[in-house]
UniProtKB/TrEMBL annotation:
SUPFAM superfamilies: Metallo-hydrolase/oxidoreductase
Keyword Metal-binding: no
Molecular function as annotated in GO: 3'-tRNA processing endoribonuclease activity
Signal peptide boundaries: 1-16
Domain Metallo-beta-lactamase stretches: 36-235
TM annotation in the entry: none
InterPro entries: AtsA-like_MBL-fold (IPR044094), Metallo-B-lactamas (IPR001279), RibonucZ/Hydroxyglut_hydro (IPR036866)
Protein name as annotated: MBL fold metallo-hydrolase
One Pfam family cited in the UniProt record for this chain: Lactamase_B_2
Record key words, sorted: Hydrolase, Signal
Domain of life: Bacteria
Amino acid sequence: MLALALALLAVVQAPADSWITLGTMGGPVAAPERAQPANALLRGGEVYLVDAGDGAAQQLAKAGLRLPQVKAVFLSHLHIDHTGGLAALIGLRDQTDVREVLTIYGPPGTRALVDGIVASLKPAAAAGYGIPGQRWPAPESIVRVVELAGGASVRVGDMTVRTAQNTHYDFAPGGADDRAYKSLSYRFDTPRRSIAYTGDTGPSPAVAALAKGADLLVSEMIDLDLTLARVAQNSPGMPAPARAKLVQHLSTHHLTPDAVGALAGSAGVKAVAVTHFAGGSDPARTADYRARIAKGFGGTIALANDLDRF
């Protein structure tokens, strides 16, 4: 009886699986105050990276996490602000002789992305530290790729990971582009917790269904005016046709604060953490974001910063 009581007490006192927003700045423009999109699902001593924007390795270090702890990577889609840190993650593991194979899950095209990264790392691996005959491991030997479509379900240890194809792209369903390029949302169900992650998406019934009843929804959000102002500052000479396409993308393929509230309310989640601040963070607008989200959602609302834990 005593042994059983102690075991139950250990389960109760054990920390719940936590989510760390490593980087909360959406692209396409980098910012000094926030890193690019990356998240860590922390399960005991194991780390599962969800998107890997530029600076992901450094953000892991700031969170007190080591590269060998990363057991898998889940990519929502292949835009560079969500994948730019993957090369450093793989290359630094190779350089420091982390032999455990890193599984990278992602949409169609992930294999081509990783193959390109591996090719770019081969010269450094061949040179090693410049000691004759002492190369680093072949980069291709420490990674494997699993490509996923919407509606997929995979088991990773005792965790179930499910996907939904979202509305970040407008390709005709079933067409060649749709088969070749997909943007995914994820749901991570562990024995203790359920966490849904939108990645980049517009309003999507499929994402609402995926997130149904989750303990936490980690959602992207866009402030269109701030984002366009930042783009104009970074690229003042952008041609009008290019700007028009960007406006179309930003306004239809992302979630406004009102849309975040509608999604969270429809899904019936317990809490929402907002990330992917493509326009940066303007404290003067924070209250407005919360009020607009709260119109559709009565639960807990957090506007995430880099390295916040949920």
